[in-house]
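Quick one, probably user error.
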């Protein structure tokens, strides 16, 4: 018998992780979504993955455009993370207000992120109540700074 959802969520809140915003732009929709479920998959070829809830409106535009950017946030980007995690804000408006740039694929890149990985969709897998999105990294941009961390349902910083 599997663990209860509440106990499972509570235990996972004790896993400290970095915070990323996945940005995307298709012909129909642009925006972003905050995730903490991000990981490298392979060095050769360079592959990364993130998990996206099945009810997320980000899946279709990512699938349609065939690309996305993983923006690894700095400690100074806490509000950006909160804005893209909000259920009440228009993510296209939030994205436009940040005046994103582009790298290789044309997907929007958030300025001042510690790292931005510009990816082409390699595959999207349906697993449980999430999609696992795997991307081939086409270009990378990095900057100096401290990471934004998430632990026990709160943002944290390294000191």
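Nope, works fine. Designed sequence:
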């Amino acid at each position: 018998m599997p663990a209860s959802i509440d106990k499972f969520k509570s235990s996972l809140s004790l896993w400290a992780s970095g915070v990323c915003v996945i940005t995307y732009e298709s012909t129909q929709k642009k925006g972003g979504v905050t995730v903490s479920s991000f990981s490298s998959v392979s060095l050769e070829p360079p592959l990364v993955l993130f998990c996206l809830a099945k009810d997320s409106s980000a899946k279709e535009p990512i699938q349609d455009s065939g690309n996305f950017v993983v923006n690894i946030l700095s400690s100074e980007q806490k509000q950006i993370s909160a804005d893209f995690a909000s259920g009440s804000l228009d993510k296209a408006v939030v994205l436009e207000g940040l005046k994103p740039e582009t790298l290789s694929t044309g997907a929007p890149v958030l300025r001042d992120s510690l790292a931005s990985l510009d990816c082409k969709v390699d595959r999207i897998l349906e697993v449980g109540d999430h999609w696992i999105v795997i991307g081939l990294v086409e270009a990378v941009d990095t900057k100096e700074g401290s990471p934004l961390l998430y632990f026990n349902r709160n943002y944290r910083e390294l000191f």
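The chain has a mean pLDDT of 95.
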